[in-house]
Amino acid sequence: MTRGPRGAGALPVRHAALAVAALLVVVACGSDAGRSATTGPSATSSPSATPSSPSPGASASPGPTVGPSASSLPPPSGSFDPAALSIRLEPVVTNLNSPLAVVSARDGSGRLFVVEQPGRIRIVRDGAAVDQPFLNIIPRVASGGERGLLGLAFAPGYPADPRLFVDYTDTSGNTVISSFTVPAATPDQADPDSERVLLHVDQPFPNHNGGALAFGPDGDLYIGMGDGGSGGDPLGNGQSLTTLLGKILRIRPGGPDATSPGYTIPPDNPFASDASARPEIFAYGLRNPWRLSFDRATGDLWIGDVGQGAWEEVDRWPAGAGWASGPNFGWNVMEGRHCYSPAANCTRTGLVEPVAEYDHGQGCAIVGGYVGRNPDEPALHGGYVFGDDCSGNIWVLDAAHPEAQGPVLLVGSGHMISSFGEDEAGRLYLTDLSSGQLLRIVPVP
After folding, report:
1. 256: exposed, middle or buried (Cβ count in 10 Å: 0-12, 13-18, 19+)
2. Does the residue 9 lie in any domain?
3. How many structural domains is the chain composed of?
4. Using the 8-state DSSP alphabet, how is residue 44 labeled?
5. What is the CATH number of the domain that holds 339?
6. Tens digit of pLDDT for each residue in 115-168?
7. How many CA atoms lie within 13 A of 231 on its CB side?
8. How many Å apart are CA 286 and CA 99, to the nearest integer?
9. Which of 102, 121, 156, 413 qualifies as a cystine partner to 135, CB 3.0-4.6 A?
10. How far apart are CA 368 and CA 398, in angstroms?
């Protein structure tokens, strides 16, 4: 399938079919063509990140484990055979504007919520997109290229806690993590005036913004932050513990009451008591963790980290795994399982290598996915499904033994995959950035 133009520059979001330069493509191919002096601070600027509220709790000593406890989750059942799985893609909605994420509130309503890059969230109900946006913050969002409204997560227990959390780039090109409230009287419409900013992170370049948001089984909010952009991590953010860039962050949002703190630091965060590091850091050494998810059966954290010029990688951190200083996934010492800086004889001691990778002959921008756990779809049960934005390839891994067989190609979809998602029952979906489609992944008997 012939795809659209690659390259740089902010594109008009109304032309969804031309949004090929958006998001991951410029990033993964290692191109800096999209960077200009007018779209972000210069390379000599020092990135900074400022919480909107103090972070009480940071002085607590870290516990022996970090992350959700698998013992509190239902055990996975059965075994997964990647070679036995076939899928088809079933269109659900076809009139979306640059969709970047699909999320369930897990509130029993059956609704899906689709994030549109320009700054809107749409409800999909009964196979149709509701005309009225669930949230519209377009005037607050810089959209185009890798910028826009990038991520969404609902508070655990929603709607008892009536908040949603979003990740977007503001009109200055910096990352904002905010919450909004959904009034009980208008369950299909969040209040745009209820925004509460939790984090504001300066971005030195207009690419590698990350954007993933997910609540873990522990109830904490996990945030994917790219390394700040350009190419090759010129500011060294991936390996620096003094910046939030190039990280997975873990914070504990305060309550919905306006008097509560914006967020606190989970006391078992790996750097919670380290004065020389940012206490929000959960994991580091990441280039652009565009999408992450938790296996709802095991609590394992799965990350699709977009590569530089040669390798795309899948990272996993098992639930309940312990460590002294937080997992280091290697960037920019390594790209995938390969030395990057230096190009040979790099020191791998202490680095967590990916459970899977693929080269740029098969794609150029990984889109992290989900582990299938819908009990009505046993063929997908235990398979981690992920894809590539550039090639449209969709692969599956045995989530319990990802390195035993490696990724198995399911289909060359022909879609510009921007995200995967799951509904309340665990059925899997994907979004196509170019065509504006939401599609369901259906296992074929």
Report:
1. middle
2. no
3. 1
4. T
5. 2.120.10.30
6. 999 999 999 999 999 999 999 999 999 999 999 999 999 999 999 999 999 999
7. 15
8. 24
9. 121
10. 14
